[in-house]
Amino acid sequence: MSKSWIDEALAQSELGHEGLAAEGRRQLPLAEPGDREQQVLDRIDRARRRRPKVREERVTMSHGAGGKATHTLIEAVFLDAFRNPLLEPLEDAAQLAVGGARIALTTDSYVVSPLFFPGGDIGDLAVNGTVNDLAVSGARPLYLSAGFILEEGFPVADLQRVTESMRAAAERAGVHVVTGDTKVVQKGKADGCYINTAGVGVVERDGTLGVAQAQPGDAIVVSGPIGDHGITIMLARGELDIEADICSDTAPLNGLVADLLDAVPGVRAMRDATRGGVATILNEIAKAADMGVLVSEDAIPVREEVRGASELLGIDPMYVACEGRLVAVVPGEDADRAVAALRAHPLGEQAAVIGHVRAEQPGIVQLKTAFGGTRIVDLLVGDPLPRIC
Amino acid sequence: MRFVDEFRDADKAHALAAKIAALCEPGRQYKLMEVCGGHTHTIYKHGLEDYLPESITLVHGPGCPVCVIPMGRVDDAIHLASQPDVIMTSFGDMMRVPGSGGSFFDANAEGTHIRMVYSPLDSLKIARQNPDKQVVFMAIGFETTAPSTAMTMIRAKAEGIENFSVFCNHVTIVPAIKAILDSPDLRLDGFIGPGHVSTVIGCRPYEFIAKQYGKPVVVAGFEPLDILQSIYMLMLQLSQGRSEVENQYARVVPWNGNLVALKAIGETMELRPYFEWRGLGFISHSALKVHEKYAAMDAELLFQVPGVRVADPKACQCGEVLKGVLKPWECKVFGTACTPETPIGTCMVSPEGACAAYYNFGRMNRNRVAEAGVAGS
């Protein structure tokens, strides 16, 4: 990488100054300090709405973390290459009309390390993750494919353990693995075992689900405590010397989703909170609907153990991955019914309304902190990095 | 959660806020600097400014360990990491800090082995596991993290680990505060003193601020009520015309510091004659290098380090932000060319950097928020 990225970034920002660039940089007109700050904020808002551009010459770990860098990569590389109306909404699953039926199709790859962790393993994730992507898009999951990339030397016993988990998870979710693929790569070219699953489901209900449907006054509901999976994995890696009694929340959500849709047919959107956590979904809602989102820290369910570990590491549970939690946007008047329906299901016992959608501050997620202040909840660039001190 | 929720009680915050507001003289403006980046992070993360009257401005200081590392040192580190058979270890915050040719993450994408560790002791573990590699720890931070580097070096020596070395970038807080006090373009009324640094150096080193410069200092903890209480203590001093060093964080900070930690630093490190701080320039006796007695663990001696000084991009105003002369949003490139995705300046990288804190947490117009709050209630 050369120095030019700085120049390029500066040139980009000139575009954001609109009209000022031609006359060179000018001082912002003198105004009340509040107004000047607002002008800067407006300029940033314009800059954020510009088409994203990948500045890095190589893929870095940040591109896989589910935050801003991932979004940029998806929009600037993949969406650019494959653009079509079915892909464009960038929902968890694409909805297709095939011979009169509405079908949902999705795919996901699993590269978790360690492969086995408290509460599950890569096999559970590979089934549940794809089932959940179908379920939250309003489909009834039916069939999965499973592709395995195995590293030379990987114990067959471990592979059997993984496939047994997949079998059990598929049974629990009521889906079948109906096709598959196996590849083996040389030792060192992979980390034991990677799995890709794709899934199809059938959409039987009317109406369109999508985060762009969010309206002012809608309530935002989560189905249970957040961050369990991400913290479990961080601790299971054993690099932190922290022990806590937590398990991954990996679970199939199709039953829970069906109960929710039965109780509240007017649900506007659902997402399962995986990489990037609940904070990322809230930002997706705000961006897609061009609405503001206001959530209350007090209302967000987080287990004590997860909060404790997050405090120690200096990371925010709102950005930590879940594997068995959904975030739903429901009309305000249906909020209580939605929570009641979720709580009646074993996977939704701690469901709660965490905030609402509003017209003010479009595109921005605001948090009322437990301390009584307000702040923004933005997308992270990459993985949350532990702080130094 | 015990020992956390007690310090985030909104009722207590409201009570303290009222007491702070009552101490403001009508028509007077107050500028208080929180020296430490950890405080900046807390202030934004909890939305603490919502509790302060308009006449009190919090100025964010230079105490963000990642933010003060000049570009040239990042380049040096990447140069070290790209030597054959070197594994570099670094704290997570440092991974995204841009050098002139990219960050540690970018360097890893090009083939270096820079691993994130949570403690310098983890570097020793890596050294033991990889006897055929040189493990270089990228040591950064104020007196807060220097003792852990020191203890690691002492242990490495005791265990006879020969493939471990330190690229030392530890800095000391007092010369930086002095540089800010001597800076002509800034008028401050008082300091929220750094908490974790003071657990090591104690409160005594700040006495010159109170005695020679006549500014009150309150060493503060990191929970939002700690900071609010410190602001109250500063306002009380100002209203009574006092300037003293007070310790709000006495539950952790001993007045005389931690002698064991100080001894460990003294054993393994010595003052550099001068060191470059990002944005603040060269400050004499402001940083530590590996002590002669530990020369075998000094990466700067073991390897050729280019040591080229790299000027900051012209548009970058990190210096002014670090000194508190500019608010983050007043920097010319803030939020447009310089964002957390593509930071030009270090202040945009670490969650403790003033710009990153403002961009990620505070990017909203407080007046409008206040108006909306009134309208909504």
Break the fold down into its secondary structure elements and pairings:
The complex is a heterodimer of chains A (389) and B (377).
Chain A: H1 4-17, H2 33-49, H3 68-82, E1 94-98, E2 101-110, E3 116-117, E4 120-121, H4 122-136, E5 140-151, H5 156-173, E6 176-185, E7 193-202, E8 219-222, H6 228-236, H7 254-263, E9 269-272, H8 277-289, E10 292-296, H9 304-313, E11 326-330, H10 335-343, E12 352-358, E13 365-368, E14 374-376
Parallel strand pairs in A: 5-6, 10-13
Antiparallel strand pairs in A: 1-2, 2-7, 3-4, 5-7, 8-11, 8-12, 9-11, 10-12, 13-14
Helix pairs in contact in A: 1-2, 4-5, 7-10
Chain B: H1 10-23, E1 30-36, H2 37-45, E2 56-63, H3 71-81, E3 86-90, H4 104-109, E4 114-116, H5 120-129, E5 134-141, H6 146-159, E6 164-170, H7 173-181, E7 190-193, H8 196-201, H9 207-211, E8 217-219, H10 224-239, E9 245-247, H11 259-268, E10 269-271, E11 274-277, E12 281-284, E13 288-290, H12 299-302, H13 318-323, H14 354-361, H15 366-376
Parallel strand pairs in B: 1-2, 1-7, 3-4, 3-5, 5-6, 7-8, 8-9
Antiparallel strand pairs in B: 10-13, 11-12
Explain how this protein is built.
- The complex is a heterodimer of chains A (389) and B (377).
- Chain A has 389 residues and is an alpha+beta fold.
- Chain A is 33% helix and 21% strand.
- Chain A has helices spanning 4-17, 33-49, 68-82, 122-136, 156-173, 228-236, 254-263, 277-289, 304-313, 335-343, and strands at 94-98, 101-110, 116-117, 120-121, 140-151, 176-185, 193-202, 219-222, 269-272, 292-296, 326-330, 352-358, 365-368, 374-376.
- In chain A, the strands form 3 sheets. A 7-stranded mixed beta sheet of chain A has the order 9-11-8-12-10-13-14.
- In chain A, helix 1 packs across helix 2 and helix 4 (122-136) runs parallel beside helix 5.
- The two termini of chain A are 31 Å apart.
- By secondary structure, chain B is α/β, with parallel strands linked by helices.
- Chain B is 37% helix and 16% strand.
- Chain B contains 15 helices and 13 strands.
- In chain B, the strands form 4 sheets. In chain B, strands 2-1-7-8-9 form a 5-stranded parallel beta sheet. A 4-stranded parallel beta sheet of chain B has the order 4-3-5-6, with helices on both faces. A two-stranded antiparallel sheet of chain B has the order 10-13.
- In chain B, strand 8, helix 10 and strand 9 form a beta-alpha-beta unit.
- In chain B, helix 1 (10-23) runs parallel beside helix 10 (224-239), helix 2 packs parallel to helix 14 (354-361) and helix 6 crosses helix 11.
- Classes of the chains: A alpha+beta (389), B alpha/beta (377).
- Chains A and B meet through helix 1, helix 2, helix 3, helix 9 and strand 13 of A and helix 1, helix 2, helix 4, helix 14 and helix 15 of B.
